[in-house]
Amino acid sequence: MDKLWSALSDSTRRNILLLLHEKDMNAGEIADNFKISKPSISHHLSILREAHLVYSHKEGQTIIYSLNKTTLRDVSRFITLLMK
């Protein structure tokens, strides 16, 4: 759970999640939306994967990243419980 909150604490990672909410993307497509290096984007994606907020799969030579909506639903339920 600590990895999850740490991953969500960074604005770049939150913005990556917003992009992936719209559609699945590869790292290059994600990087095109930021003014930081591709290795930095890869590092952020690794942190998001470790926190189970995104998952990836290969399509040929390309790795496609997708939002893990199950984890996000769990986070939403937790926050909802805190608000009661």
Architecture blueprint of SSEs:
Blueprint: H1 2-8, H2 11-22, E1 25-26, H3 27-31, H4 38-50, E2 54-59, E3 62-67, H5 69-83
Describe the structure.
It is a single chain. The chain is of the alpha+beta class and 84 residues long. It has one domain (2-83): Arc Repressor Mutant, subunit A (Orthogonal Bundle), CATH 1.10.10. Helix content is 62%, strand content 17%. The protein contains five helices and three strands. It has helices spanning 2-8, 11-22, 27-31, 38-50, 69-83; strands at residues 25-26, 54-59, 62-67. The protein has a three-stranded antiparallel beta sheet with strand order 1-3-2. Strand 2 and strand 3 (62-67) form a beta hairpin. Helix 1 runs antiparallel to helix 4. The longest helix is centred in the last third of the chain and has 15 residues, at 69-83. It is globular. The model has no long low-confidence stretch (mean pLDDT 96).
